[in-house]
Amino acid sequence: MPEPIASDDAVSHKTISGSSLRRVHCIHQQLGDLRERLDRGPKKVAARRANVEHQESQLAAAKDQRTKLRMASDEKQVQLKGGETKIDELKIKLNSISSNREYQALLDQIAAGEMANSVLADEILEALEKLDQLQEKVTAAESAVEKAQAEAEKVLREVEEEKPSLQADVDRLEIDLIESEKALPRDVRDSYQRVVRARGSDALAAVEGQICTGCNQQITLNAYADLMLGKPLFCPMCGCMLYVPDDEG
Fold first, then answer.
1. Which is nearest to 24 in space by CA: 194, 205, 239, 246?
2. Rounded Cα–Cα distance for residues 5 and 2 (Å)
3. What's the pLDDT tens digit per position in 133-175?
4. Which of 20, 114, 169, 239 could form a Cys-Cys staple with 183, CB 3.0–4.6 A?
5. Strand ranges (DSSP E) for the chain?
6. Beta strand spans in 116-249 (E)
7. Sheet strands side by side (includes 217-218)
8. How does 125-137 read in b/e, with b if 16+ C-beta sit within 10 Å?
9. Residue pLDDT, tens place only, 66-120
């Protein structure tokens, strides 16, 4: 908390009107808002770019999943083709078997092979169905990437278009602030600058009904009387430079 100026020490050889301090406060608040908007611009752009990267990673993951499933499906199809070829060879071999025992053994091999091929065929069919679903997922992910890229480009354009105007307003208000601060008594400027460095746009606070709007604490009657006389005063609780609005005076 900035060092408050005690009531006795707060009295300056020069008084300052509440309207002058109110103007300084207003300029600080406007500058705070403008600077926040300037800072928010790059953050908005960064957030949109991060979303693009996220959508691109989702797309890459979907494509990778599709590729792996397609490779597995292709491998099963090769296995199925090999199994069918083997069964055809076994069926041809049946014609040359004279022993009933060997004949039955070949029939058992053929039946086992056909069962294995049937399982492979079902797995291939299931894989093809999943591939169709994954293709839909890839298509949706591609659309999401395009949308995210378009949003990122739009936000970037908006931020770049708004930046010169915001900066011009900041430059203008900074000049206005320098001029308005000239109304401050010299012997309180150091304390005022310390509060500005610590609290930024909240360096000043109006007093309404003896209440500091910076910390909602009540100030003494003597302090309020000093303010009414235009004597510079800092809140002993939050350190804000105080002023009485025109409608309070």
1. 205
2. 9
3. 999 999 999 999 999 999 999 999 999 999 999 999 999 999 9
4. 20
5. 204-208, 211-212, 217-218, 241-243
6. 204-208, 211-212, 217-218, 241-243
7. 217-218, 211-212, 204-208, 241-243
8. eebeebbeebeeb
9. 999 999 999 999 999 999 999 999 998 888 888 888 889 989 999 999 999 999 9
| Contact present, 180 and 23 (Cβ < 8 Å) | yes
Hey, is 70 helix, strand or coil?
Answer: helix
One-letter amino acid at 25 equals H
* 3-state SS, one letter per residue, for 1-52: CCCCCCHHHHCCCCCCCHHHHHHHHHHHHHHHHHHHHHHHHHHHHHHHHHHH
**Contact residues for 119 (Cβ-Cβ < 8 A; gap 6+):** none
First to last CA, the chain: 28
Give the span between the Cα atoms of 7 and 9, in whole angstroms: 5
Q: Is 246 helix (H, G, I), strand (E, B) or coil?
A: coil
* CA gap 90, 132 in Å, rounded: 35
Q: Which residues, 6 or more positions from 192, have their beta carbon under 8 angstroms from its beta carbon?
A: 181, 184, 203, 241
Of how many residues is the chain composed?
249
